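agent> Task received from the user: take the single chain below, predict its 3D structure, and emit structure tokens. No templates, no multimer pairing.
agent> Plan: (1) validate residues, (2) run structure prediction, (3) serialize to tokens, (4) report one or two observations.
agent> Step 1 OK, no nonstandard residues flagged.
tool_call: predict_structure(input=
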Amino acid sequence: MAELTQIHSTKSPDAISIVFVHGPGGDARRTWMYTPKDDATLWPKWVGEDANCNVWTWDTFATVDAQQAHMNLLGPGPVHSKDTPRDAGRSLRARLGA
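)
tool_result: status=success, residues=98
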């Protein structure tokens, strides 16, 4: 299942929120890290600290290979033709309360 994880938060009521979404074959944390085993290299957190904004990562099961001609963006499991990037966007929007 797709998962939204907050990486940095701010108490500022006017703060913007940024959501980092990895691509096919990526990972919500490792994609954004210089050294995958060192949390200090998770650069979206730096963005939140520097810009005083809320930062989230959106972890999806996104894969493309020779046997799967399209992406499953909504979570692990069988790929269904109805699972589209638009569906993933709607799911993300619902989780953010937008």
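agent> Step 4: summary for the user.
The beta strands are 3-8, 17-21, 54-59.
agent> Done.
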